[in-house]
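Researcher: I need the complex structure. Ligand is glutamine. Inputs:
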Amino acid sequence: MTAGPRIGVLALQGDVREHAHALESVGAEPLAVGSAADLTRIHGLVIPGGESTTMSKIAVRDGLIGPLREARAAGMPMYGSCAGMIMLADRVLDARPDQEFVGGLDITVRRNAFGRQVDSFEAPIRLEGIPTEQADAADHGPLTAVFIRAPWVEDVGPGVEVLGRLRQEGAPDTIVAVRQGRLMATAFHPELTGDRRVHAIFVGMVRQAS
Ligand code: GLN
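Model: Output:
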């Protein structure tokens, strides 16, 4: 049996264990990442959900913001869920003024975008725009997406593919999953359901890149 790619989960704060478990179940070898040295041992990185202001503070305190940006700029595939989406966005609305980001995704996200009406909810999301080599992953109907004080994507640049939209009666569609090159992000938490399609797509991206 060939070993799967080693994929880090940024372990500063948030639901690290759930992502590690999901990665393992689709054939990757997870590694909790807490230092710049750890970044040199992985082929891809997941930035989990949690609280992006806290994650940012710890990353700055531990000297990780620079190395994370460098790893991303050097082409490391990264996937962010919820707070992780915020960390990977180039533009963040309703951020704290001192909040630092990894960036790289040419998107504008709004933090806690749904939170004014409702803190958390589930909704079906149909994955779109999955490349043929990973199309199996999209072929089994909509996935149940869990949103917890989630951001949404207000605007995407020309190089960004939309992978999923939340469609609700009487409200405009909202972009909740995107990909640009080696970066992917979802506003929801696929690690909290048994549906491993998003993680399978990411492992496919990592395999392709390495
Ligand atoms: N609201 C959180 C933030 O701004 C994200 C919530 C989550 O990751 N579930 O970071």
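Model: Summary of the prediction. Residues 49-52, 82-83, 86, 111-112, 148-149 surround glutamine (CB under 6 Å).
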